[in-house]
Automatic annotation (TrEMBL):
InterPro entries: Flag_FlgI. GO terms for molecular function: structural molecule activity. It holds the Pfam family FlgI. Its main location: other. It comes from Aliirhizobium smilacinae. Belongs to the FlgI family. GO terms for biological process: bacterial-type flagellum-dependent cell motility. This is Flagellar P-ring protein. Keywords: Bacterial flagellum, Cell projection, Cilium, Flagellum, Periplasm, Signal. Residues 1-25 form the signal peptide. It is found in: Bacterial flagellum basal body.
Amino acid sequence: MIARLLTTIVASVLALFAAASVVEAASNARIKDVVSLQAGRDNQLIGYGLVVGLQGTGDGLRASPFTDQSMRAMLQNLGISTQGGQSAAKNVAAVMVTTNLPPFTSPGSRIDVTVSSLGDATSLRGGTLVMTSLTGADGQIYAVAQGAVVVSGFSATGAATQLTEGITTAGRIPGGAIIERELPSRFKDSGALVLQLRNPDFSTAIRVADVINSFSTSTYRMPIAEARDSQVVSVQKPPQEDLARLMARIENLAVETDTPAKVVINERTGTIVIGADVRISKVAVSYGTLTVQVTETPQVIQPLPFSRGETYVQPQTDITAEKTGGPVAVLEGPDLRSLVAGLNSIGVKPDGIIAILQGIKSAGALQAELVLQ
């Protein structure tokens, strides 16, 4: 009986420790989620091409002469004579093709491309991109794109109205580019890994280095990581370890991240994003608006019958002013929940909260960086 009771107690204690470790792990992030490998960065590619097969929604060749020149050059390369007058076709559009070349890609693999209209085409729906070379910043061709353009938006035009949803002059081609040349990479030849934090922070960089050193000390009997600054952590390769295997081991280590307190405001959309570490010192806030309405009701004055008077218009203007405002509220945000509750207690819309946060920042009571977009 006592043995069974002890077993139950031990199992409960182990369950509590497991739950605590799960909560702690849930609050941490993997190194692969907070850093990127310097040797594994993307490279941008760009190209100029033509989209054909449009249903009368292509470029006006008179308004976009480069489209006509490109079409003639393409036909001449195919052995077709283009001598004669200017073409009036409306099913061709000049486009710019852009994409990102992922790291460690090999020739023959496919990547997605984005196609954007360059002329006055109204829609790329139903079009097909003809063979387009994609070059890098060094002028070398790294991929070739071709395929049907997928456009999410649509446009419908009638005699008196037009309905448009989304963007019809840009689209994507999933897997539309084939890699023809691989980037020169010496990942295996280098003797160190350079990790770059996506959100630079000294505290996070030090914690990443400490976690890696704790792992390497128990595994290789030596520290291998060093935080150079707030963004870069250098990891030396142990003599007996492979570089790819070392990266695979350390990228799954959990690290506690830290970010500076920020409030991001987008005044165009009314979006407000408040970080978890934002604090507000005790302040008193009152928000009110003044609405002025001007109404013009001119009156027509008619002369009496059989009189020689003239009809004239007498202006009449009514101006009303309405001022609304709530009571003075005391705000203090020791944590995010208290801050949001205090802002909601004032009962204003997002544009009012934006003005209040800007005023609190000007008063020096907002203990965070205010980012306006």
